[in-house]
Amino acid sequence: MKRDKGLDLVRCIACLFIIVFHFSIEEIGGHTFRTTLPTSNIDLGHIGVALFFILSGASLYVSMEKYKDSSRGKKIATYIYKRFKGIFPAFWSAYLLIFLFTFIMKGGFDSTIPKESIWMSLVGMDGLLLYLGPNFYMTGEWYIGAMIIVYLYYPFLKMLIDKLPKLSLIIIPVLYIVFMVVYDFDLMFYRHPLAQILWISFGIYFAKYVILCKGLGSKLRWILFGVSVAVFVVFSLVPIEQFYFHATIINAMGIAMFFILYNLAFVMKNKAVDKVVTTISVYSYPIFLVHHAIIYALRDGFTDFTFNRAEYITCFVLYLVLIVPCAMVVKWIAKKFVEIIEMIPKRAC
User: Fold this and answer.
1) What tens digit of pLDDT does each residue of 308-344 get?
2) Degrees (nearest 5) of the Cα angle 221, 226, 231?
3) How far apart are CA 104 and CA 44, in angstroms?
C-alpha cells in the first residue's frame, strides 16, 4: 500500500517532539530547557503522545480494512500476528542491547529488583507497571504497555464505530467522562490505556471518513484546519488548572495538532523534505525505543560536568547523532528476527 504522506509527517513530528521533550527534562551538565507551551497546559511530550495514539487508531483502521473480506478466524490471526510483529521483535531487540550495555557499564544486576518481575519486561508491561514497584524496565516506557492494552480493546472499539458511527459519537465521550470522574488508580490518569480512547476513536473516524473515503472537500478541510489552529492557539494561551477541563483540553489540543500536521503534507512535495520525513517515520519506533537509554548514558557520563550553552548544545547534537546508528541496529535485528519466525512454517511444510 502506498504510504500516506500526511501520516508520515505526523509520525515524524511526533517522534521529534518525544525525543526533544525527554532530553529536555533530564539534567545533563547542569542544564535543562523548557518544552512546555506558555500556559503549561500541555508540553511537547503530551503532544507527541497524543499524535502517536491518534496515528495508531488511524493506521490500524487502514491496515485492518485490507483484510476485512477474510474469514473471521483469519482476520483474528492476522490482527494478532501483525500487532505482535509490530511491537515485540523491535522491543526485545532494543531491550537486549540496552540490557547488555547496562550490565557491562554497571557490572551486574540490581539485586533489589524482585526476580519474578521479569515477566513484565518479557511482555512489554514493565514501563506501564513501574508504579507498582521496581522491575527490570529498560526501554519502551509506559507507552508500550498502554498500547498493548489498546490493541486488545481496539477491535471492539472499531466494531462499535463501524456499526454505530453516529451513536458512538455520544457513547464514547460519555464513557470517557464517566471513567475520568470515577478514576481511582495510582497510575497517572493520562497513562491509563482507557484514557486514550478519545484519541484512538478520533483516529478511527479520521481513517474511515477522510483517509479511505476522501470525505472532506477542499473548502471544509481548510475550514477545519482554521478551527484546529484556533483551538490549539487559544488553549495554548489560556491556562486551565481544573483537572477535568485540563484532561479534555489535552485531548482537544492533540486532535487539533494532528489535523494541522496532516494537512501540511504538501511540504513533502519537496524531495529532500519527503526523504527526511519518510526516513524518520519509518524508524520512529526504533528511535523511540533507544532514545531514553542514550539520554541516561549521557546524563550518567556527564554527572560531574557543568556545561556552558555551547557544550550543552553539542551534547544535544551528540544525542541526535547517536540515536541514528542505534535505531538502525535495532530495526535490522528486529527484521532478522521476523524473517526467522516467518521461515518456520515454510520449513515445516
Assistant:
1) 989 999 999 999 999 999 999 999 999 999 998 887 7
2) 120
3) 33
Angle between helices 44-65 and 72-106 (to 10 degrees): 140
Distance CA 31, CA 24 (A): 8
Task: Give every CB contact of residue 228 below 8 A, 6+ residues apart in sequence.
Answer: 255, 256, 257, 259, 260
Q: How far apart are CA 229 and CA 220, in angstroms?
A: 14
DSSP 30: T
pLDDT in tens, 125-174: 999 999 999 999 999 899 999 999 999 999 999 999 999 999 999 999 99
The grid coordinates of residue 166 equal 453516529
Q: Using H for helix, E for strand and C for coil, what is the string for 280-334?
A: HHHCHHHHHHHHHHHHHHHHHHCCCCCCCHHHHHHHHHHHHHHHHHHHHHHHHHH
